[in-house]
Amino acid sequence: MKSNFLMLLFSITAAIAADVTIPGEGAYSVSNLGGLPDEPTSVTQPLANQLLDVLEKYGLTKNFGVVGVHSHVSLAPGQVMFQHGNSTFTHQEIEVYNDVRSVGVPYTYRITTDAIPQLLPLDLGEITPNVMAARSDLAAAMANKAFLQEFAEKASGHLAGIAYIRPLDRMALEHSEVVKNHYNVEKTAGNATAISLTAVESDDAPSFFTRGVGNSTAVSEITILCSACGHGNPWED
Ligand SMILES: *[C@@H]1O[C@H](CO)[C@@H](O)[C@H](O)[C@H]1NC(C)=O
Ligand SMILES: *[C@@H]1O[C@H](CO)[C@@H](O)[C@H](O)[C@H]1NC(C)=O
Ligand SMILES: *[C@@H]1O[C@H](CO)[C@@H](O)[C@H](O)[C@H]1NC(C)=O
Protein backbone atom coordinates (compact mmCIF):
# COMPACT_ATOMS: atom_id res chain seq x y z
CA MET A 1 0.00 0.00 0.00
CA LYS A 2 2.61 2.46 1.15
CA SER A 3 5.05 1.48 -1.58
CA ASN A 4 2.31 1.96 -4.21
CA PHE A 5 1.79 5.45 -2.90
CA LEU A 6 5.51 6.18 -2.99
CA MET A 7 5.74 4.83 -6.54
CA LEU A 8 2.88 7.07 -7.58
CA LEU A 9 4.41 10.08 -5.87
CA PHE A 10 7.76 9.33 -7.46
CA SER A 11 6.30 9.03 -10.96
CA ILE A 12 4.33 12.27 -10.58
CA THR A 13 7.43 14.08 -9.33
CA ALA A 14 9.52 12.61 -12.14
CA ALA A 15 6.96 13.65 -14.75
CA ILE A 16 6.85 17.20 -13.43
CA ALA A 17 10.62 17.39 -13.10
CA ALA A 18 11.12 16.43 -16.77
CA ASP A 19 11.65 19.96 -17.97
CA VAL A 20 11.35 21.07 -21.58
CA THR A 21 14.63 22.34 -23.05
CA ILE A 22 14.14 25.65 -24.81
CA PRO A 23 16.86 26.34 -27.39
CA GLY A 24 18.55 29.65 -26.67
CA GLU A 25 16.82 30.24 -23.30
CA GLY A 26 19.11 32.46 -21.24
CA ALA A 27 20.12 31.64 -17.67
CA TYR A 28 18.35 33.43 -14.83
CA SER A 29 20.34 36.17 -13.15
CA VAL A 30 19.37 39.26 -11.19
CA SER A 31 21.27 41.20 -13.83
CA ASN A 32 18.53 40.23 -16.34
CA LEU A 33 16.40 42.84 -14.52
CA GLY A 34 19.14 45.46 -14.79
CA GLY A 35 17.96 48.85 -15.98
CA LEU A 36 14.24 48.00 -15.87
CA PRO A 37 12.03 50.91 -14.84
CA ASP A 38 9.15 50.48 -12.39
CA GLU A 39 6.67 51.44 -15.10
CA PRO A 40 5.67 49.21 -18.05
CA THR A 41 5.04 52.24 -20.28
CA SER A 42 7.59 51.39 -22.99
CA VAL A 43 5.07 49.02 -24.60
CA THR A 44 1.94 50.77 -25.89
CA GLN A 45 -1.08 48.90 -27.23
CA PRO A 46 -0.19 49.60 -30.93
CA LEU A 47 3.31 48.18 -30.34
CA ALA A 48 1.83 45.22 -28.43
CA ASN A 49 -0.36 44.49 -31.48
CA GLN A 50 2.71 44.28 -33.71
CA LEU A 51 4.54 42.06 -31.22
CA LEU A 52 1.47 39.82 -30.92
CA ASP A 53 1.56 39.41 -34.72
CA VAL A 54 5.04 37.90 -34.28
CA LEU A 55 3.82 35.62 -31.46
CA GLU A 56 0.88 34.53 -33.61
CA LYS A 57 3.15 33.74 -36.55
CA TYR A 58 5.18 31.40 -34.32
CA GLY A 59 2.19 29.71 -32.70
CA LEU A 60 2.59 31.31 -29.28
CA THR A 61 -0.61 33.28 -28.66
CA LYS A 62 -2.44 30.37 -27.03
CA ASN A 63 -0.04 30.32 -24.08
CA PHE A 64 1.93 33.60 -24.17
CA GLY A 65 1.28 37.32 -24.25
CA VAL A 66 3.40 40.43 -24.67
CA VAL A 67 4.62 42.24 -21.57
CA GLY A 68 5.99 45.71 -21.00
CA VAL A 69 8.90 44.57 -18.85
CA HIS A 70 9.39 46.44 -15.59
CA SER A 71 10.30 45.70 -11.99
CA HIS A 72 8.81 46.82 -8.69
CA VAL A 73 11.26 45.08 -6.42
CA SER A 74 14.97 45.41 -5.75
CA LEU A 75 16.60 42.01 -5.70
CA ALA A 76 20.02 41.23 -4.26
CA PRO A 77 22.35 38.96 -6.26
CA GLY A 78 21.14 35.35 -5.96
CA GLN A 79 17.49 36.31 -5.37
CA VAL A 80 14.47 35.74 -7.61
CA MET A 81 10.74 36.57 -7.53
CA PHE A 82 8.82 33.28 -7.28
CA GLN A 83 5.09 32.95 -7.87
CA HIS A 84 2.44 30.33 -7.31
CA GLY A 85 -1.31 30.35 -7.31
CA ASN A 86 -4.48 29.28 -9.03
CA SER A 87 -7.21 30.70 -11.25
CA THR A 88 -8.38 33.26 -8.67
CA PHE A 89 -5.28 34.27 -6.70
CA THR A 90 -1.51 34.33 -7.14
CA HIS A 91 1.18 35.17 -4.64
CA GLN A 92 4.76 36.16 -5.38
CA GLU A 93 7.68 36.75 -3.09
CA ILE A 94 11.45 37.04 -3.01
CA GLU A 95 13.28 33.71 -2.73
CA VAL A 96 16.88 32.52 -2.91
CA TYR A 97 17.30 31.36 -6.51
CA ASN A 98 19.33 28.27 -5.65
CA ASP A 99 16.62 27.12 -3.20
CA VAL A 100 13.80 27.27 -5.75
CA ARG A 101 15.44 26.75 -9.16
CA SER A 102 14.50 23.05 -9.25
CA VAL A 103 10.82 23.66 -8.42
CA GLY A 104 10.15 26.51 -10.82
CA VAL A 105 10.35 27.60 -14.45
CA PRO A 106 10.40 31.16 -15.86
CA TYR A 107 6.97 32.79 -16.32
CA THR A 108 8.24 36.11 -17.71
CA TYR A 109 11.06 36.86 -20.16
CA ARG A 110 12.73 40.00 -21.40
CA ILE A 111 13.71 39.91 -25.07
CA THR A 112 16.70 42.14 -25.65
CA THR A 113 17.01 44.16 -28.81
CA ASP A 114 20.75 43.65 -29.33
CA ALA A 115 22.10 42.54 -32.72
CA ILE A 116 21.72 38.99 -31.39
CA PRO A 117 18.56 39.18 -29.26
CA GLN A 118 18.37 37.15 -26.07
CA LEU A 119 15.50 35.48 -24.19
CA LEU A 120 16.23 36.30 -20.54
CA PRO A 121 14.16 34.90 -17.63
CA LEU A 122 12.98 37.56 -15.16
CA ASP A 123 11.22 35.40 -12.57
CA LEU A 124 10.16 31.87 -11.69
CA GLY A 125 6.81 30.24 -11.05
CA GLU A 126 5.64 26.84 -9.92
CA ILE A 127 5.74 23.95 -12.37
CA THR A 128 2.30 22.86 -13.61
CA PRO A 129 1.15 20.80 -16.62
CA ASN A 130 -0.12 24.04 -18.24
CA VAL A 131 3.15 25.91 -17.94
CA MET A 132 4.99 22.87 -19.32
CA ALA A 133 2.66 22.89 -22.36
CA ALA A 134 3.51 26.57 -22.77
CA ARG A 135 7.23 25.73 -22.59
CA SER A 136 6.78 23.18 -25.39
CA ASP A 137 5.25 25.91 -27.58
CA LEU A 138 8.14 28.23 -26.73
CA ALA A 139 10.71 25.51 -27.50
CA ALA A 140 9.14 25.05 -30.95
CA ALA A 141 9.16 28.81 -31.65
CA MET A 142 12.76 29.20 -30.41
CA ALA A 143 13.92 26.37 -32.68
CA ASN A 144 13.55 29.00 -35.42
CA LYS A 145 16.09 31.79 -34.85
CA ALA A 146 13.90 34.15 -36.86
CA PHE A 147 11.41 34.35 -33.97
CA LEU A 148 13.61 36.41 -31.60
CA GLN A 149 15.03 38.43 -34.50
CA GLU A 150 11.57 39.45 -35.70
CA PHE A 151 10.36 40.21 -32.17
CA ALA A 152 13.44 42.36 -31.46
CA GLU A 153 13.12 44.21 -34.76
CA LYS A 154 9.48 45.09 -34.05
CA ALA A 155 10.29 46.01 -30.42
CA SER A 156 12.94 48.35 -31.80
CA GLY A 157 14.58 49.27 -28.51
CA HIS A 158 11.43 49.24 -26.36
CA LEU A 159 11.50 47.26 -23.09
CA ALA A 160 9.40 44.30 -24.15
CA GLY A 161 9.12 40.61 -23.46
CA ILE A 162 6.72 37.72 -23.26
CA ALA A 163 4.94 36.07 -20.35
CA TYR A 164 3.05 32.83 -19.78
CA ILE A 165 -0.74 33.30 -19.62
CA ARG A 166 -1.50 31.97 -16.14
CA PRO A 167 -4.83 30.41 -15.12
CA LEU A 168 -5.57 33.70 -13.28
CA ASP A 169 -5.07 35.77 -16.45
CA ARG A 170 -7.09 33.31 -18.54
CA MET A 171 -10.00 33.33 -16.09
CA ALA A 172 -10.02 37.13 -15.97
CA LEU A 173 -10.03 37.38 -19.78
CA GLU A 174 -12.87 34.91 -20.09
CA HIS A 175 -14.93 37.01 -17.69
CA SER A 176 -13.98 40.42 -19.14
CA GLU A 177 -12.02 41.33 -16.02
CA VAL A 178 -8.42 42.45 -15.48
CA VAL A 179 -5.76 41.20 -13.12
CA LYS A 180 -4.31 43.66 -10.66
CA ASN A 181 -1.14 43.27 -8.60
CA HIS A 182 -1.02 44.47 -5.01
CA TYR A 183 2.43 44.72 -3.44
CA ASN A 184 3.25 45.10 0.23
CA VAL A 185 4.84 48.39 1.25
CA GLU A 186 8.36 46.94 1.30
CA LYS A 187 7.75 45.54 -2.21
CA THR A 188 9.01 42.11 -1.15
CA ALA A 189 5.75 40.27 -1.84
CA GLY A 190 2.63 40.73 -3.88
CA ASN A 191 -0.74 39.19 -4.57
CA ALA A 192 -2.77 39.35 -7.73
CA THR A 193 -6.51 38.94 -8.21
CA ALA A 194 -9.01 39.80 -10.94
CA ILE A 195 -11.03 43.01 -10.68
CA SER A 196 -13.91 44.30 -12.79
CA LEU A 197 -13.27 46.95 -15.44
CA THR A 198 -15.28 49.45 -13.39
CA ALA A 199 -12.83 49.04 -10.47
CA VAL A 200 -9.87 50.12 -12.61
CA GLU A 201 -8.22 53.28 -11.27
CA SER A 202 -6.85 56.13 -13.34
CA ASP A 203 -3.19 55.40 -12.52
CA ASP A 204 -3.42 51.67 -13.35
CA ALA A 205 -1.17 51.03 -16.34
CA PRO A 206 -1.64 48.09 -18.70
CA SER A 207 1.39 45.78 -18.66
CA PHE A 208 0.28 42.53 -20.34
CA PHE A 209 -1.37 42.05 -23.71
CA THR A 210 -2.80 38.82 -25.13
CA ARG A 211 -4.72 37.82 -28.25
CA GLY A 212 -7.55 35.39 -28.79
CA VAL A 213 -7.85 34.22 -25.20
CA GLY A 214 -10.95 36.02 -23.96
CA ASN A 215 -14.28 36.75 -25.60
CA SER A 216 -13.16 40.10 -26.90
CA THR A 217 -12.51 40.55 -30.60
CA ALA A 218 -9.83 43.19 -29.96
CA VAL A 219 -6.46 42.64 -31.62
CA SER A 220 -4.90 42.81 -28.19
CA GLU A 221 -6.57 42.17 -24.87
CA ILE A 222 -5.23 43.99 -21.84
CA THR A 223 -4.85 41.58 -18.98
CA ILE A 224 -2.66 42.87 -16.21
CA LEU A 225 -2.62 46.28 -14.64
CA CYS A 226 0.23 47.77 -12.78
CA SER A 227 -1.08 50.09 -10.11
CA ALA A 228 0.34 53.52 -9.40
CA CYS A 229 2.55 53.45 -12.45
CA GLY A 230 1.55 56.95 -13.46
CA HIS A 231 0.14 55.96 -16.83
CA GLY A 232 -3.25 56.65 -18.36
CA ASN A 233 -6.25 54.40 -17.86
CA PRO A 234 -7.24 52.88 -21.23
CA TRP A 235 -10.91 52.66 -20.17
CA GLU A 236 -11.23 56.30 -19.15
CA ASP A 237 -12.33 59.18 -21.36
C1 LIG B 1 -6.92 29.91 -4.80
O1 LIG B 1 -6.05 30.05 -3.71
C2 LIG B 1 -6.59 30.87 -2.69
C3 LIG B 1 -5.50 31.09 -1.64
O2 LIG B 1 -4.89 29.89 -1.31
C4 LIG B 1 -7.86 30.24 -2.13
O3 LIG B 1 -8.41 31.08 -1.13
C5 LIG B 1 -8.85 30.08 -3.27
O4 LIG B 1 -9.99 29.39 -2.82
C6 LIG B 1 -8.23 29.28 -4.41
N1 LIG B 1 -9.14 29.29 -5.54
C7 LIG B 1 -9.41 28.20 -6.24
C8 LIG B 1 -10.31 28.38 -7.42
O5 LIG B 1 -8.94 27.10 -5.94
C1 LIG C 1 -16.28 33.76 -22.39
O1 LIG C 1 -16.02 32.52 -22.99
C2 LIG C 1 -15.80 31.45 -22.10
C3 LIG C 1 -15.43 30.23 -22.90
O2 LIG C 1 -14.25 30.48 -23.59
C4 LIG C 1 -17.01 31.25 -21.24
O3 LIG C 1 -16.77 30.22 -20.30
C5 LIG C 1 -17.35 32.53 -20.51
O4 LIG C 1 -18.53 32.39 -19.77
C6 LIG C 1 -17.50 33.69 -21.47
N1 LIG C 1 -17.69 34.94 -20.72
C7 LIG C 1 -18.57 35.86 -21.06
C8 LIG C 1 -18.60 37.06 -20.18
O5 LIG C 1 -19.31 35.76 -22.02
C1 LIG D 1 -1.46 38.36 0.20
O1 LIG D 1 -2.42 37.43 0.63
C2 LIG D 1 -2.08 36.80 1.84
C3 LIG D 1 -3.09 35.70 2.08
O2 LIG D 1 -4.39 36.11 1.76
C4 LIG D 1 -2.05 37.85 2.95
O3 LIG D 1 -1.70 37.26 4.18
C5 LIG D 1 -1.03 38.91 2.59
O4 LIG D 1 -1.05 39.95 3.52
C6 LIG D 1 -1.32 39.46 1.21
N1 LIG D 1 -0.21 40.32 0.82
C7 LIG D 1 -0.36 41.44 0.12
C8 LIG D 1 0.89 42.15 -0.25
O5 LIG D 1 -1.45 41.87 -0.22
What does this structure look like?
This protein is α+β, with helices and mostly antiparallel strands and 237 residues long. The protein has one domain (2-226). The chain contains 6 helices and 12 strands. It has helices spanning 2-17, 45-57, 97-100, 129-142, 146-155, 167-174; strands spanning 64-68, 79-85, 90-96, 104-105, 108-111, 119-121, 124-126, 160-164, 177-183, 189-196, 205-210, 221-226. The chain has a 12-stranded mixed β-sheet with strand order 4-7-2-3-10-9-12-11-1-8-5-6, with helices on both faces. A hairpin with a 5-residue loop joins strand 9 (177-183) and strand 10 (189-196). Bound molecules: 2-acetamido-2-deoxy-beta-D-glucopyranose (3 copies). One 2-acetamido-2-deoxy-beta-D-glucopyranose binds at residues 174-176, 215.
List the helices and strands and how they pair.
Layout: H1 2-17, H2 45-57, E1 64-68, E2 79-85, E3 90-96, H3 97-100, E4 104-105, E5 108-111, E6 119-121, E7 124-126, H4 129-142, H5 146-155, E8 160-164, H6 167-174, E9 177-183, E10 189-196, E11 205-210, E12 221-226
Parallel strand pairs: 2-7, 9-12
Antiparallel strand pairs: 1-8, 1-11, 2-3, 3-10, 4-7, 5-6, 5-8, 9-10, 11-12
Bound molecules: 2-acetamido-2-deoxy-beta-D-glucopyranose (3 copies).
* Unreliable residue runs: 5-11, 228-237
**Tally of individual domains:** 1
Order of helices and strands: HHEEEHEEEEHHEHEEEE
Q: Could you describe the largest sheet, including whether it forms a barrel?
A: 12 strands, mixed
By helix and strand content, what is the structural category? alpha+beta
Assign an overall shape: globular
C-alpha termini separation: 64 Å
- Strand line-up in the sheet with most strands: 4-7-2-3-10-9-12-11-1-8-5-6
Give the count of helical stretches. Answer: 6
Q: Tell me the radius of gyration.
A: 18 Å
- Average pLDDT metric: 86
Helical fraction = 25-40%
Percentage of β-strand residues: 25-35%
* Ligands bound to this protein structure: 2-acetamido-2-deoxy-beta-D-glucopyranose
Strand segment tally: 12
**So what's the oligomer here?**
single chain
Keywords: Signal
Signal peptide: 1-17
